[in-house]
Amino acid sequence: MVDISKYNHILFIGVKGVAMANLAIILKQSNKEVSGVDVADEFITDIELKENEIQVQNINSYSINDTIDLVVYGASHGGKNNTIIQQAIQKKISIITQAELIGHIVSQYSQSIAVCGCHGKTNTTSFISFLLHRLRLDPTYLVGSSSFSGLPAGHRGSSEYIVYEADEYGVCPPDDKTSKLLYNKPKHVLCLNLDHDHPDMYPTFNDVKDTFLQYFNEQVQPDGNIYINGDDVNLNIMKNNILKKVKTYGFNESNDIVIRIVRQTEEQTTISLTISKNHGYARHGQVMDPHFAFDGINEWEFDLPFFGKLLVANCAGAIGLLLEIGCSGEEIQKNTMLFTGVKRRFEEIYHKGETWIFDDYAHHPTEIQATLQAVRLRFPKKRIVVVFQPHTFSRTKLLASQFAESLACADIALIAPIYPSAREKFDNQVSSEMIEEYAKSMKKNNVKAFSNICKLTASFSSILQKGDVVFTMGAGDIYKLKNDIIRALE
Predict the structure, then answer these.
(1) Do the bridges between strand 412-415 and strand 9-13 make them parallel or antiparallel, or are there none, so unpaired?
(2) Could you tell me the pTM of the whole model?
């Protein structure tokens, strides 16, 4: 394990990426000198980096200097083959991967909370971080966005708690496909779901499952707790092979924490959590709840600013974990509705009369389907229009038919050209038109792909109408089209 304390000036390659930016902010708040390099394009982290006085230079013209004594890199911009890393090696300057750095930071905290799974990590991690912040526990947290609920997405706290997203992607594919999960050792884990994603890293779904099982059995601390969504079929099957203490949550009555939706309005979902007597609670929290010294069944109600079973289940699992570490149920009740969300997660960016525009990071068919389910619950009588941008050629190629099926759940889906990742090569054999073709083969005529952005934006004036609920959706830069959408609607 690298000892970060002996380094003074740390350089981040690809510093505008959300994980890199927030790691840089945490180290800056730890009194380190921090700088970074990246492309000149606009990113959602630009404001936070500037506010934290982290200088960002152009990656294409930067030459490393002798004031740098540690360089952090990840999978983007060529990974270890990047010219700056090669310069550092020649100058005998220390280098470290993003995964190793996260593992080092996590090891400094006695109450580490990892949120893992293939979908929903960012929203759930920010929800836990927000509640701990509101409960005055000042956690350190690392969230995969630029901000949430008025808070920066990277923060170095003063307490024993750290909350972070445990990413299943590789350390530096294709050269190093070791999962980043295997570099951190948490005390508590909340696993939301399992799905097949990152096909460049995991050729088959069995590869995904094997990695998560290894994480649970080898990385989670011996006295740690693992929370899993018991309604997720794959997690439920895996449960019997997990060697650590496992507790389940979900809508099924067989779970340790049973969720019920009590009522829904246009503004919130009220749930009840019924916790069985076999659900034992740790007693090391500073805001320990006396209500949980109990025999029999205990039930709580919480108001949530979320819609749809998947989002609600994620937050219910988060609340169950917080109760586990001793947080007050009554204090949690007071604060759940104060959570206003995460940048680029069901983010309201425009509302005028009966017209709404939202932005969402969903970039996998399962995430798109969950978001659209939540939209239908909130706006059951509205026309839903999605402007979607596929992310990565490998994901689009593998999941084109599933993208078509999930996007067809909207009233209209408009598809932009693929946004390529900085960690993969261009593939001219894969395009957004594949998704439209699959939709047509399913007799779905509401999915339309465009060969360039200009054609896409030109279609807005004839397609969009006042009274629509419009979503920009994807992991790339599709959110930049919001002004074009607003102009068309107005």
Answers:
(1) unpaired
(2) 0.77
- Domain holding 69, by residue range, is 4-97
Residue 57: beta bridge partners?
37
Instruction: Report which of 330, 351, 337, 324 is spatially closest to residue 470, judged by C-alpha positions.
Output: 351
Asked if residue 102 belongs to a domain, the reply is no
Q: Give Cβ neighbours of residue 437 (< 8 Å, ≥ 6 apart).
A: none
Return d(Cα 340, Cα 348) in angstroms, integer. Answer: 10
| Contact present, 398 and 199 (Cβ < 8 Å) | yes
Q: Is residue 220 part of a domain?
A: yes
Are 50 and 22 in a shared domain? yes
Q: Does one domain contain both 55 and 176?
A: no
Question: Tens of pLDDT along 250-264?
Answer: 999 999 999 999 988
Look at residue 12 and tell me if it is in a domain.
yes
Q: Identify the residue whose tokens are 């009555």.
A: 253
Cβ–Cβ < 8 Å for 434, 396: yes
Domain count for the chain, please give it: 3
Q: Is the distance from CB of 259 to CB of 251 less than 8 angstroms?
A: yes
Do residues 434 and 377 both lie within one domain? yes
Whole-number Å distance between alpha carbons of 379 and 402: 24
If asked whether residues 250 and 154 sit together in one domain, one would say yes
What CA–CA distance (Å, rounded) separates 208 from 196? Answer: 7
Would 163 be classed as within a structural domain? Answer: yes
The per-residue pLDDT for range 375-413, each reduced to its tens digit, is 888 888 899 999 999 988 888 888 888 899 989 999 999
